[in-house]
Amino acid sequence: MVQKNGSIINSQACEMFPDSENVKTDFEIESHGGEAPQLRDQWKRKLDFLIACMGFSIGLGNVWRFPYLCYKNGGGAFLIPYFVSVFFAGIPLFLLEVALGQFTSRGIILAWNICPLFRGLGCASTLINFMVNCYYTVILGWGLHYLFSSFQSPLPWTLCDQWWNTAGCFSNETEQPNPTGRTNSSLMDTDPATEYWENRVLQISPGIDQVGNIQWELALCLLLAWIIIFLCICKGIKTSGKVMYVTATSPYVFMLVLLVRTSLLDGAREGLVYYLKPDWTKLADMQVWSDAGTQIFFSYALSLGALTALGSYNSFHHNSFRDCCLFALINTLTSLLAGCVIFATLGNMAKIANVPINMVAESGPGLAFVIYPKALGTMPYSPFWAVCFFLMLLLLGIDSMFGGVEGFVAAFADFAPRIHSDVRLRCAVVGSVCVISYLVGLSMVTNGGMYIFQLFDYFSGSRIILVVGFLETIAIGYVYGCRRFTKHMTLMYGFSLGWVPRLFWCVITPCFTLVLFVFSVIVYEELSYRRASLPEPYQFPGWSVKLGWMMASSSLLLIPITLFTEIVITPGTFVQVSYPQHIISVKISFA
Q1: Residues 220, 146: Cα–Cα separation, whole Å
Q2: Distance of CA 370 to CAs 70, 338, 365, 576, Å?
Q3: Is 207 marked within a binding site?
Q4: pLDDT per position as a tens digit, 124-178
Q5: Are 519 and 289 in contact (CB under 8 A)?
Q6: Residues near 579 by Cβ (< 8 Å), separated by ≥ 6?
Q7: Quick check: 66 and 299 in contact, CB under 8 A?
Q8: Which of 65, 281, 441, 503 has a CA that sits 20 to 30 A from residue 217's CA?
Q9: Annotated binding residue at 331?
Q10: The CATH number of the domain where 351 resides is what?
Q11: Whole-number Å distance between alpha carbons of 573 and 567
């Protein structure tokens, strides 16, 4: 039954209107109570969505994780498993999550009303997203601390006469003989940049069982980061969308400036060659494929629910397929560009210290807050270059948080649609989320906070997001029906993608994601943390590892719990519960 000017019909009627140019459609999933929710905001410009995805997904992992993985796993040869992962998992899952949000105009939890048995996927993604938000913002706190410290001359991490320095600190590695057999960690165990990071910024304790006190400077920096996030997203996408034009594009300016500067350094060429020189034997290593696949999930921010939330603000006929392809290209080029900046600098450091590059290369916080600041300290006008670098890091991280927090808020705002239209209520909800996340993050700015940070980083996502991505393809490809979903996409885009989505969502992507998960389990290593000032890495005690696995399993357990709950409380047969015709509706008005 169809009426003009906005009547509601069953979604199967969408197939009756293949000429989408003559139909204006606003899809919305009704609640079980039957009350149609209010319409949410939409991106004002077509480019807004792409900019938002760039800002959210392209972040610190592109700067400190991809370059290290590339050099570690065969240089240029690593690009083969990387691009395979892009085409087999990255693009298909990115498109699936965005199209799901765009079609339903809902956040990650209610979007799965199209397949209620798998609504737990939305709950799992939301919990993972919350945990990632809590620890990711701590990095911004560290970055703000370094940014403020960069306005000093000389830079404080280049000196050995400060209260945090030890008796063995030396400020120039070229004056220190290179003893035989010294490892990377022992080579820099009294370096001022290392001592500044561990003894001044973190004031790190010996282990996770000695949490110690909150570091008030880091706590204030963390608070400032959350205040910035709140102010930028409290009024919704109309505000954050404008801010993202600055935060998503400015890092490229800083990156290009740093690339020009670092490429002129002595040893930069050797660093770039080391970064991209292929070692084809690495392709037979499962660790390489596991690293490539998990890097795609991290750099594309898959299985966190935020992409679905960002897609839900698109107009119904927005061409998100085009944006998906553009995003994949930009993301890859950004990772390669960041790698060139990092390894040109590492090549210079290796040249100065007269050591191989692998003795100065590092991943994660150690690269951003020890190795690179140390390199910046050797340049003329070092405070200027330090400000550029840490501004770039902050801009990369802050807009990732815009998308992360927006995805979390949108997931719950759908249950109370007034939040989308009432600015005061939305500000209260966003403020509450920021306060709770800040309180959780305070545990990571204590003396033992780095160990808690490592626990969150290692267990809150990693292999878990592979499982969520695999189940997403199963839910859409087999339970809801891939053919059915692609017809919805045809209605949205005005053109058909043919058999390609069905091939990927039903066969290639689930198989590839499952293989990645198996590889990640096979190459699993116990959690450890390498402190630059100690010869051996710190091994986490058994109780903390168990706590980490409890953290990881808490999100996954939501999937079977929700599934069985849905079966018990929903009347009808199993097929009816799995394939709910009655809750999906489309508003159709003729142009």
Answers
A1: 13
A2: 20, 17, 8, 57
A3: no
A4: 999 999 999 999 999 999 999 999 999 998 899 988 888 888 887 877 543 444 4
A5: yes
A6: 115, 479, 480, 481
A7: yes
A8: 65
A9: yes
A10: 1.10.4160.10
A11: 9
**Domain-located, residue 1:** no
Please report, as a single letter, which amino acid is at residue 498: G
Query: For the residues of 481-543, what is the DSSP string, one character each?
Result: IHHHHHHHHHHHHSS--TTHHHHIIIIIHHHHHHHHHHHHHHT----EE--TTSSSPEEPPHH
Summarised one tens digit per residue, pLDDT across range 491-543 is 999 999 989 999 999 999 999 999 999 998 888 888 888 886 677 889 999 99
Q: Is 363 annotated as a binding residue?
A: no
382 annotated ligand-binding residue: no
Q: Which domain holds residue 331?
A: 7-590
Query: What secondary structure letter does DSSP report for 196?
Result: I
| 182 assigned to some structural domain | yes
Using alpha carbons, list the distances in angstroms from residue 249 to 141, 388, 487. Answer: 21, 14, 35
What is the tally of structural domains in the chain?
1
- Other CB atoms closer than 10 Å to residue 380's CB: what's the count? 7
Hey, what's the torsion of the CAs at 509, 326, 300, 125, to 10 degrees? -80
Residues 314 and 317: their CA atoms lie apart, in Å, by: 8
Residue 167 to residue 115: CA distance in whole angstroms: 63
Of 163, 147, 143, the C-alpha closest to 155 is: 147
Query: Is 396 annotated as belonging to a binding site?
Result: yes
Instruction: Quote the CA–CA distance of 327 and 301 in Å, as a whole number.
Output: 12
Estimate to the nearest angstrom the gap between the alpha carbon of 128 and the chain centroid.
Answer: 11
In a domain, 476, yes or no: yes
Condensed to tens digits (0 to 9), the pLDDT of residues 273-312 reads 888 888 888 888 888 999 899 899 988 999 999 999 999 9
Instruction: Select from 95, 508, 538, 68 the least CA-distant residue to 291.
Output: 68
- What number of other Cβ atoms are within 10 A of residue 34's Cβ? 8
What is the token pair recorded at 456?
């969150």
Q: Which residue matches tokens 């999933």?
A: 29
Q: Per-residue DSSP letters for 251-314? A: HHHHHHHHHHHHHTSTTHHHHHHHHH---GGGGG-HHHHHHHHHHHHHHTTTTSSHHHHHHHTS
Residues 467-484: pLDDT tens digits? 999 999 999 999 999 999
pLDDT category of residue 579 using cuts at 50, 70 and 90 = low
